[in-house]
């Protein structure tokens, strides 16, 4: 049977059988559609990418205020377009490993303080110049400068000196950091000629596509770069285009009508409808993003760990996952790390337990209601989720009072200011980044006011530890601390839900960001 | 043309300018009332008190409001709309393309909607109280009663998704071939037409019916003119003033009221531009767009007034 399926899938890949016929025959052989689809895409990959055509993406997350300056990239459209024209020093592979790009090799001193990047030969910028160590060094310098307002500034501050000599760039860090290569994969760090110091928004790098059109908030287009250094792996379509479609319904209609080949952010509530459209494939996969309720550990009544524990036990995670995310996510366990991070360790899942919650609530001695602030902008469905929380907590005898805040100004006035509110984290690429951004005592964005000297020490020690086993244990201990004593209630991790239209092949799920970590346009191709 | 008319026209224009100034004060005051300020919006989540203070200083947000108002007004009068705070681009340059797109869409919607509305209005009068009249009125009222986004989504569903005749999204760009451009705007222009049609049609019908009661129309009928010639030669010229008024009001709506339609069809016009910048608290852009919208509205109304004056024989030939 499997031989027959394989034969059929090869026929589809070579264009002799239509996708629908294949799925029909697979069903006749008793094969479930997801498996048949997976088989099909592996056959298409085996048949090899098809060159040519125009690949178009309709994406939410672009505004007329966007710029091509990589330092200023914030939203999805500049991010995804950046992956088309930009080339990185190093990138994360879909498996979570490091993939060397402009850096051919990255090595460190034993104490993880001095790092050496060896620059690859023969990588060419779109303007015809060769990428040199000086360009890479200048790029890093620009992003370390306060004036660049770079989104990567937070990490870059940890670099003390940057020196280019010959084919090498040597970085000396202020403090040891075993994660440096991961930090260099930050999407802002697109290598530009002279680091983009001359014209930051020139849109010139060494990526698979050359910028042809740039109309912020409307569309961005690129043409295949003939001298791209790894043209066999990326840059299959002749042209790529990103069309900004912020309206969810318009985005779906454009995919159905065939004006675009892929879209991002399909709403969970319409996924089941879109699935039935012929030719459309839903691409959903887990990522590090999570929906949270955050309590300030230093503000009454949340300065009492029993009350925090009572609330953590009084939330029905399964119900919330099913009703708010319609199953397109995974259960959270009150620490911000999941399997999409390297060095993740599974910890026993916390479950809804009204009796235990009641016990802790009594022990805390708190009386009266608990005020939870929420808003639609906190995360999609946050108001519904808060109401579910209110109901499940009521069964444990805990009264939660909901206050719906206006979306305008929520991130200025409520988040990181009020002691208990709904919020969202997009996640980071390493555990160290996540913990350093939001759980170190000194972090600006420590939105749970989790201030524990022993935890801080562990973060710094893990950062400098090059032995993976030891490091893994340290991260496990940190996770337990946050889970059992922190102010974070994390009911669920959300999924990226993208969708592709007919004939789009070469899709590989990537846990780091939506649209294959932004590479969908550069790595997919159109089946003839 | 005689002097009383010129005087009337001059009065209208002067009134318009005063109105525009008053609106500029309102716009300025309105943007001051918005919660949060630009400095906070630019820095977002990462704002610290020091960086906020620095940025406010740099943007001149510490001056009293009236000083900032006159600075701004002075700039506008000399054609300098300032620079967008969020992207640092010159506002006048970025608005130009957007305004052109909005006008392009409004123009084609008007080309279809105005003659269609008037023709339907005339037909309704010709067959008044019959089934034709009722059908026209019913359909036009129904299309106006639906909210624009609903009409938009209906058009997308049938024409773009089901039958795939027109594209679902109307992205246009510079250098786009004319044919493609027309195809791209087909759906939003249709949506706009349906929205403004009924108002103009009903008004035409009412205005003409009004004059149809007059003695000279009866005379025209008695001397044996066909029903359509009576309407065309005798009723319509006398009903033109209110019709022009309502046409101009709807033209203004086509330009300033298209935000929803632009967002649904992803059309790169002024509406989208405004929405993007309101969410970023980009006050200079919001002010500039607001002022342009106000100017369009007022000048179209002035034109309507003047046209009504000129169309009125009693004013054209004073005793």
Question: How would you describe the overall organization of this protein?
Answer:
The complex is a heterodimer of chains A (528) and B (319). Chain A is of the alpha+beta class and 528 residues long. Chain A has helices at 2-13, 19-28, 33-47, 76-85, 133-144, 153-156, 180-183, 248-256, 268-275, 305-313, 317-324, 354-364, 382-394, 410-414, 431-438, 453-464, 468-485, 514-517, 520-523; strands spanning 54-59, 90-92, 98-100, 103-108, 114-119, 159-165, 168-173, 209-215, 219-224, 239-244, 262-263, 281-295, 329-331, 370-374, 400-404, 420-425, 488-500, 504-505, 525-526. In chain A, strands 1, 8, 9, 10, 11, 12, 13, 16 and 17 form a 9-stranded mixed β-sheet that branches. In chain A, strands 4-5-7-6 form a 4-stranded antiparallel β-sheet, with helices on one face. In chain A, strands 2-3 form a two-stranded antiparallel ribbon. In chain A, a hairpin with a 5-residue loop joins strand 2 and strand 3 (98-100). Chain A is globular. Chain B is an all-alpha fold and 319 residues long. In chain B, helix 9 (215-222) packs across helix 10 and helix 12 runs antiparallel to helix 13 (283-311). The model of chain B has no long low-confidence stretch (mean pLDDT 85). Chain A binds chain B through residues 58, 63-67, 213, 215-219, 243-247, 249-250, 253-254, 256-260, 406, 408-409, 411-413, 415-416, 444-445, and chain B through 35-36, 40, 44-48, 84, 86-87, 94, 153, 156-157, 160-161, 164, 167-169, 171, 173, 263-266, 268, 272-273, 276-277, 279-280, 282.
Considering the chains and any ligands shown, give keywords for the structure.
heterodimer; A: 528 residues; alpha+beta; 19 helices; globular; B: mainly alpha
**Overall spatial form of chain A:** globular
Strand content of chain B: under 5%
Number of E-state strands of chain B: 0
Order of helices and strands of chain B: HHHHHHHHHHHHHH
Helix/strand structural class of chain B: mainly alpha
């Amino acid at each position: 049977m499997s031989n027959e399926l394989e034969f059929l899938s090869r026929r589809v890949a070579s264009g002799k059988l239509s996708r629908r016929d294949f799925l029909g025959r697979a069903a006749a052989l008793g094969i479930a559609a997801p498996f048949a689809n997976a088989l099909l895409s592996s056959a298409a990959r085996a048949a090899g990418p098809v060159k040519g055509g125009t690949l178009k993406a309709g994406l939410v997350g672009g505004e007329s205020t966007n710029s091509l300056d990589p330092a200023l990239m914030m939203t999805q459209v500049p991010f995804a377009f950046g992956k088309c024209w930009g080339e990185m020093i190093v990138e994360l592979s879909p498996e979570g490993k490091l993939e060397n790009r402009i850096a051919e090799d990255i090595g460190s001193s034993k104490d993880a303080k001095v790092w050496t990047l060896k620059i690859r030969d023969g990588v060419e910028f779109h303007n015809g110049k060769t990428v040199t160590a000086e360009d890479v060094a200048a790029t890093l310098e620009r992003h370390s400068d306060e004036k660049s307002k770079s989104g990567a500034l937070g990490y870059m501050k940890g670099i003390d000196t940057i020196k280019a000599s010959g084919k090498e760039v040597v970085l000396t860090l202020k403090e040891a950091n075993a994660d440096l290569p991961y930090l260099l994969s930050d999407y802002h760090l697109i290598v530009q000629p002279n680091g983009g110091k001359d014209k930051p928004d020139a849109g010139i790098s060494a990526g698979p596509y050359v910028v042809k059109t740039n109309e912020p908030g409307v569309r961005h287009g690129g043409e295949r770069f003939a001298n791209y250094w790894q043209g066999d792996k990326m840059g299959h379509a002749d042209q790529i285009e990103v069309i900004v479609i912020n309206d969810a319904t318009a985005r779906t209609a454009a995919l159905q009508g065939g004006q675009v080949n892929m879209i991002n952010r399909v709403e969970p509530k319409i996924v089941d409808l879109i699935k039935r459209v012929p030719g459309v494939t839903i691409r959903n996969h887990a990522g590090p993003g999570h929906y949270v309720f955050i309590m300030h550990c230093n503000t009454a009544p949340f300065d009492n760990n029993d009350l925090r524990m009572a609330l953590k036990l009084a939330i029905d995670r399964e119900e919330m996952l099913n009703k708010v995310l319609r199953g397109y996510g995974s259960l959270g366990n009150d620490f911000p790390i999941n399997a999409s991070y390297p060095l993740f360790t599974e910890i026993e899942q916390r479950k809804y337990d009204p009796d235990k919650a009641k016990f802790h609530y009594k022990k805390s001695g708190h009386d009266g209601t608990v005020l939870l602030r929420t808003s639609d902008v906190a995360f999609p469905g946050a108001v519904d989720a808060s109401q579910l929380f209110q109901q499940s907590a009521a069964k444990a005898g805990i009264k939660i009072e909901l206050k719906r805040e206006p979306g305008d100004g929520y991130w200025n006035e409520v988040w990181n200011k009020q002691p208990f509110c709904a919020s969202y984290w997009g996640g980071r690429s390493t555990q160290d980044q996540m913990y350093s951004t939001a759980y170190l005592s000194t972090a600006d964005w420590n939105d749970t006011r989790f201030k524990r000297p022993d935890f801080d020490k562990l973060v710094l020690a893990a950062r400098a530890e090059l032995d993976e086993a030891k490091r893994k244990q340290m991260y496990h201990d940190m996770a337990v601390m946050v889970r059992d004593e922190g102010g974070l209630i994390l009911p669920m991790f959300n999924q990226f839900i993208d969708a592709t239209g007919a004939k789009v092949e070469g899709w590989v799920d990537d846990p780091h960001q939506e649209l294959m970590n932004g590479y969908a346009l550069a790595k997919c191709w159109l089946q003839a | 043309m005689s002097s009383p008319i010129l005087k009337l026209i001059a009065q209208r224009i002067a009134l318009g300018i005063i109105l525009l100034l008053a609106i500029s004060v309102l716009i300025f005051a309105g943007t001051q009332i918005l919660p949060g300020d630009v400095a906070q919006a630019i820095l977002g989540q990462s704002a610290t008190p020091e960086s906020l203070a620095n940025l406010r200083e740099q943007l001149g947000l510490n001056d009293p409001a009236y000083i900032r108002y006159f600075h701004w007004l002075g700039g506008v009068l000399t054609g300098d709309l300032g620079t967008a705070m969020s992207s640092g681009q010159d506002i006048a340059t970025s608005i130009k393309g957007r305004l052109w797109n909005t006008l392009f869409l409004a123009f084609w919607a008007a080309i279809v909607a105005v003659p269609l509305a008037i023709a339907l209005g005339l037909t309704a009068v010709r067959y008044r109280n019959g089934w034709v009249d009722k059908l026209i009125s019913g359909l036009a009222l129904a299309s106006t009663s639906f909210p624009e986004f609903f009409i938009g989504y209906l058009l997308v569903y049938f024409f773009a998704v089901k039958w795939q005749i027109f594209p679902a999204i109307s992205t246009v760009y510079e250098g786009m071939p004319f044919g493609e451009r027309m195809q791209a705007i087909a759906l939003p222009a249709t949506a706009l037409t349906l929205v403004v049609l009924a108002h103009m049609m009903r008004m035409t019908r009412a205005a003409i019916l009004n004059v149809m009661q007059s003695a000279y129309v009866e005379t025209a009928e008695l001397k044996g003119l066909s029903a359509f010639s009576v309407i065309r030669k005798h009723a319509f010229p006398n009903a033109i003033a209110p019709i022009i008024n309502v046409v101009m009001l709807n033209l203004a709506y086509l330009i300033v009221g298209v935000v929803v339609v632009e967002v649904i069809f992803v059309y790169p016009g002024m509406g989208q531009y405004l929405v993007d910048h309101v969410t970023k608290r980009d006050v200079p852009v919001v002010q500039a767009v607001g002022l342009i919208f106000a100017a369009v509205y007022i000048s179209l109304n002035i034109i309507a007034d003047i046209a009504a004056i000129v169309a009125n024989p009693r004013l054209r030939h004073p005793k």
